[in-house]
Amino acid sequence: MRERILDVALDLFNEHGYDATSLREIAQRLGVSKAALYYHFEQKADIMVALHQRFHRIGQALLEEFAARSAEADPVRLWLELLDEFIDGVVANRELVMMHQRNSQALRRIVGDTPENHADHEDMEEALRAMLADPRISLRQRVRLATSIDAVVSVLVDIEGYFGDVPLDQRAALVRDVARELLAA
Questions:
Q1: Is 17 helix (H, G, I), strand (E, B) or coil?
Q2: What are phi and psi of 73, to 5 degrees?
Q3: Residue 57: left if φ>0, alpha if ψ -120 to 50, beta else—which one?
Q4: How many CA atoms lie within 13 A of 81 on its CB side?
Q5: Strand, helix or coil at 5?
Q6: How far apart are CA 173 and CA 164, in angstroms?
Q7: Which of 88, 152, 153, 182 has the maximum number of C-beta atoms within 10 A of its C-beta?
Q8: What's the burial of 94, exposed, middle or buried (CB within 10 Å: 0-12/13-18/19+)?
Q9: How far apart are CA 146 and CA 131, in angstroms?
């Protein structure tokens, strides 16, 4: 039931935004009472925190692998090796990434209020900062690396619908090629 609540909340947060979604709406979509929700989550912010933790588990594993292997590997080549895993993760968790982007203000407000979530978030941010500040990588390549990350997310999540009805798998194949070209340049 907990996972169903999170899945329904994810859909509603993407459709209407966190602030415009009520616990009543989540319960209605699930076909349960608000009391059933309270059994699993005391407040709506707890649902957002749980979704945020899902998001972190995806990125954290990839950043940890990068950190563990980057000491003995060329960081740009390593990112090229991990690029498919990153793209697959964004595709598989597109709705979660979208929720994170669409509700970034609410997330900052909620995560900032919770010390353990703030610490998790800072750990991920620090790992990303370390990757992008690696002195072994030229500034030009660091910009390319950051651009590749942003390109993958923006093209695959496509919040604004710029890519219309282009299928996700087709966009994923193209963004793989473009990110590789960008990094290999």
A1: coil
A2: -125, 155
A3: alpha
A4: 12
A5: helix
A6: 16
A7: 152
A8: middle
A9: 10
Q: What is the dihedral of CA 150, 154, 155, 158, to 10 degrees?
A: 170
Structure token digits, residue 112? 């900032």
Query: For every residue of 32-90, which 3-state class applies, written as one string?
Result: CCHHHHHHHCCCHHHHHHHHHHHHHHHHHHHHHHHHHHHCCCCHHHHHHHHHHHHHHHH
What pLDDT tens digit does each residue of the chain (185 aa) get?
Answer: 899 999 999 999 999 999 999 999 999 999 999 999 999 999 999 999 999 888 888 788 888 888 888 888 888 888 888 888 999 999 999 999 999 889 989 988 887 766 666 666 677 778 788 888 888 889 999 899 899 888 898 899 887 788 888 999 999 999 999 999 988 86
Of 123, 137, 56, nearest to 93 by C-alpha is 56
Read off the amino acid at residue 61. A
Give long-range contacts, CB 8 A cutoff, 24+ apart: 161-168.
168/91, 168/94
The token pair that represents 175 in the structure block: 């963004």
Q: Is the dihedral of CA 113, 3, 65, 157 positive or negative?
A: negative
